[in-house]
Amino acid sequence: MILRVQHAKLDGPHHLWLEFNDGARGLVELSSLLEGPIFEMLKDPAFFAKFELDPVCGTVAWPNGADFAPEALHALLPLITAVA
Fold it and tell me: Which residues contact 39 (CB under 8 A, 6 or more apart)?
């Protein structure tokens, strides 16, 4: 199965509540991953909030082209909430 984000909701300045197609779900905090030029704009909470689900890649993406692999987001899930 190819891992995909099915639902995403903003839940804080750099936090997303994510649900994956494997049933895993939970809150991830992304501020520690916002390194490098492509992620600089995401440090602004107003811009971070402009994410959308990318139907091609199955992940969250931003208007400037920034995104994270679904596998990387999945790895950030707390173990206690990761399994449905």
Answer: 33, 66
